[in-house]
Design brief:
The chain has 27 helices and 14 strands. The protein has 790 residues and is α+β, with helices and mostly antiparallel strands. It has 5 domains: 90 residues; 148 residues, Alpha-Beta Plaits (2-Layer Sandwich), CATH 3.30.70; 98 residues, GAF domain (Beta-Lactamase), CATH 3.30.450.40; 169 residues, GAF domain (Beta-Lactamase, 2-Layer Sandwich), CATH 3.30.450.40; 191 residues, Hypothetical protein af1432 (Orthogonal Bundle). The chain has a 4-stranded antiparallel beta sheet with strand order 2-3-1-6, sandwiched between helices. A hairpin with a 2-residue loop joins strand 4 and strand 5. The N and C termini lie far apart (106 Å).
């Protein structure tokens, strides 16, 4: 800032002398007048006229001296202010001649003089002077993309950065256009290189209005006396190195980016699949950009337009949590400053506008780390942004065309989706997606009442995360949420202009809707013959999105949806009844099996023990837990056919006669018939019929051998024999665990399947068989005491 202009000290002293002389002269004049008056009127000294005349002369003289002095001082002040204004205008003219009007830096002519002066000073002192010349890369493209006003802001911010880097004694200049220069007195080449690197880092983080501008420059350095002894020589050396650096960067950028950009646009072109949604295409493009350019983040955000919702997709690297950039923002435009704040320190960011016919309607953000990412030039970025806009425009045009032609087909699609074979929740989820796409809503949900039984369905289908759905389910299935569904169904069809702040909506739902950015909602009831099945709710982040035409369209859909849902519910109810019937049948068979066991006092607890052994053997041979449990359950009814045997055979104390054995061999067939021919009991029938078959074919009733015997029957046969050997019977004592295992092992390949016998031996070696045996024995000993106590 120019210091205030004043008169010099010598001029001030001269003015003081003039004022003093004026005062002395006035005093002498007054004294002369007084003496003359006294001489004239000396004889009348005591006369009042004489006194009055003398006083008048003295007062006039004093007034004259005072006014003349003040007048001269005022003239000096006016003169000083005039000189200040003249000097200020001179300084302004000098600044206009020496300074750039946009940045306030030196212009080329003044900076050239500064360089010459510093070179002369350095020559006298045998010192050094460094000159740095810089040119902003891609500024023209940036200026064309965002406008000249934005470009001026970039130049001002760049000028501020250069002024800060000039330091004490240095100077910064804008040479013209996007070229800048730094003068560093006393700095040698290495010092200048450090300053250039620091300047490049400073330029990379410049932001205008929260928007990163990515203004990176190419630098050239000229040094006195190494490169010459004149300003022209230093400028020539610095310009040459700057353009060499710019050319090197361009060649390097083209060589590194050419392959990546070519592959990027090839992949982006392949993503333009007719069968894919706009969101999927944009996601594929974002993925391609992130992977091919090794970016940390590629984010595309497009605002809503007419009946089309906002679109936001992001592809983040492994270190960048993609959800952090979306969240509630996925329902609308993503704010650039928010995203930039989430990025790691040092990340470069490029933002490109996505424009439509009405102007800017979106943004694309590319971010990466300087050491690992390819930084695309402006041409690649803007071409990618244009492709994104073309995808959005084409997708929305396609949706509009499809919407116009699908008012008839949507009902058929909904009916097909509801009539599918998947669970009801999955079918209705498909329906909500179809409806959301058809009307252009942000999300559609189907809210069920008690008619849905266990198939309660709450589906937010656009932009909702699993966490959001979990919270939404919790508030909607609460008593307050279900009461609201019934209450709003009584008013439906209706439009809620601001459901996030509607007092009728439960507080928990209002919080979720507000976070999701929902601004309006349309509610339609789902009724069939007066019975309320639920409601269909469509929401949008665009205010005033729904109108009477859309609500009428939704009501038509719910009219077709109601009978389809009713049929689906009926089918689910029938399947549930089948499951309940199957469960009842299994329980009945289990009771019959225990009744058969109760007829034989010598085999008490056999079914409980054999089930335990069968599950362990099945797991050991490699079956999964569900299959093992099923075999264990089937083993409990393997001797169901013994209900057909008479007591004289079943309770006979001695050996059975051949006739008794004939009747005994019939009990597997009787058990199969008691189980019935339901396909749900195929495993139980196999165990009941073939658990007495033997590996060598000597068993009954069908003399099956080897692998022809079902694996479940082979497992039950081993478990049955092991339990029989280790329990007391009328015709034998109970064997020890090792004796029983040795006997079964001896019959491997003859009576029993080698694979199952090996499983039994593995259980013995690991100690698990002894543990099971002890637990079974403990339970069997506990049972009589429990019964006696009862």
């Amino acid at each position: 800032m120019t210091p205030p202009l004043t008169l010099s000290q010598s001029a001030r002293q001269e003015v003081r002398r003039i004022v003093l002389i004026s005062r002395v002269a006035g005093a002498l004049v007054a004294a002369a007048l007084a003496v003359g008056s006294m001489y004239i009127y000396w004889g009348d000294f005591h006369d009042l006229d004489f006194v009055f005349q003398c006083f008048t002369v003295v007062a006039g003289t004093v007034a004259f001296v005072s006014l003349s002095t003040i007048s001269r001082i005022g003239h000096v002040g006016v003169l000083e202010r005039s000189l200040q204004e003249v000097q200020s205008l001179s300084e302004q003219l000098r600044d206009m001649a020496e300074r750039d009007s946009l940045t306030g830096l030196y212009n080329l002519r003044a900076f050239h003089e500064q360089v010459e002066e510093e070179i002369r000073a350095a020559a006298r002192d045998a010192g050094a002077v460094s000159l740095i010349v810089a040119d902003l890369d891609g500024f023209k493209t940036l200026n064309d993309a965002y406008g000249h006003q934005f470009g001026d802001e970039v130049l001002r911010a760049t000028g501020t950065a250069f002024a800060a880097a000039s330091g004490p004694g240095g100077a910064a200049a804008r040479l013209g256009g996007d070229e800048f220069a730094l003068l560093l007195p006393g700095a040698r080449r290495d010092d200048a290189a450090v300053v250039a690197q620091s300047m490049e880092a400073s330029l990379g983080v410049i932001r205008i209005g929260g928007r990163p501008v990515a203004a990176v420059g190419s630098f050239g350095i000229g040094v006195f006396p190494d490169d010459g002894d004149s300003a022209q020589a230093l400028f020539a050396a610095a310009d040459g190195r700057m353009y060499s650096e710019k050319h090197r960067r361009k060649v390097e950028s083209l060589s590194t980016l050419a392959g990546a950009a070519r592959t990027l646009f090839v992949r982006a072109g392949r993503a333009l699949c007719r069968d894919h949604t706009t969101t999927r295409i944009l996601h594929d493009i974002a993925e391609a950009a992130r992977e091919e350019l090794a970016l940390s983040l590629c984010l595309i955000s497009v605002g809503p337009r007419a009946q089309h919702p906002a679109l936001t997709v992001a592809s983040a690297g492994a270190s960048e949590p993609e959800g952090a950039f979306l969240g509630a923002a996925s329902y609308g435009r993503v704010q650039t400053p928010t995203v930039v704040q989430m990025l790691p320190q040092g990340t470069w960011v490029i933002e490109a506008p996505i424009r439509d016919e009405d102007g800017e309607n979106g943004t694309m953000i590319l971010a990466g780390m300087p050491t690992t990412s390819f930084r695309p030039d402006a041409a690649v970025v803007l071409a990618l942004a244009d492709m994104v806009q073309a995808v959005v425009a084409n997708g929305r045009a396609h949706v509009d065309a499809v919407r116009l032609g699908r008012e008839r087909d949507i009902h058929i699609d909904v009916a097909h989706a509801v009539a599918g074979s998947e669970p009801l929740r999955d079918r209705l989820s498909t329906v909500t997606k179809l409806i959301a796409e058809f009307v252009g809503a942000t999300a559609v949900s189907i809210e069920g009442l008690q008619a849905f039984n266990s198939s309660l369905t709450y589906n937010m289908t656009s932009g909702a995360s699993a966490r959001f759905l979990e919270r939404w389910d919790a508030v909607r299935t609460s008593d307050e949420g279900l009461a609201f569904v019934r209450a709003i169904a009584a008013e439906a069809p209706c439009i809620l202009d601001d459901p996030a702040h509607d007092p009728r909506v439960p507080e928990g739902e209002r919080v979720l809707l507000d976070r999701a950015g929902v601004r309006t909602s349309a509610i339609c009831p789902i009724r069939l013959d007066g019975q309320l099945l639920g409601i269909l709710a469509a929401v949008s982040t665009t205010p005033d999105f729904f109108n009477e035409d859309i609500v009428a369209m939704l009501m038509t859909i719910t009219d077709h949806l109601a009978p389809a849902i009713s049929v689906a519910l009926l089918r689910d109810a029938l399947e549930l009844s089948y499951v309940q019937l199957e469960q009842a049948s299994r329980e009945s068979l289990a009771r019959l099996a225990y009744a058969a066991e109760a007829r034989d006092p010598h085999t008490g607890g056999h079914l409980r023990r054999i089930r335990h052994y069968c599950v362990a053997l099945a797991l050991e041979v490699g079956l999964d837990a569900d299959e093992a449990d099923a075999i264990g359950a089937a083993s409990t009814i393997h001797d169901l056919g013994k209900l057909s045997l008479s007591d004289d055979v079943l309770h006979k104390p001695g050996r059975l006669t051949p006739g008794d054995w004939d009747r005994m061999r019939e009990h597997p067939g009787h058990g199969e018939r008691l189980i019935g021919d339901s396909p749900k009991f195929e495993l139980e029938r196999a165990v009941a019929r073939w658990h007495h078959e033997r590996w060598d074919g000597t068993g009954y009733p069908d003399a099956l051998s080897g692998e022809k015997i079902p694996l479940a029957a082979r497992i039950v046969a081993v478990a049955d024999a092991f339990d029989a050997l280790t329990t007391d019977r009328p015709y034998k004592r109970a064997w020890s665990l090792d004796e029983a295992c040795d006997e079964v092992l001896r019959m491997r390949g003859r009576l029993f399947c080698p694979r199952v016998v090996e499983a039994l031996e593995a259980l013995r070696r690991s100690g698990r068989l002894a543990q099971m045996f002890a637990e079974v024995e403990g339970r069997e000993q506990e049972t009589p005491r429990t019964r006696a106590a009862a």
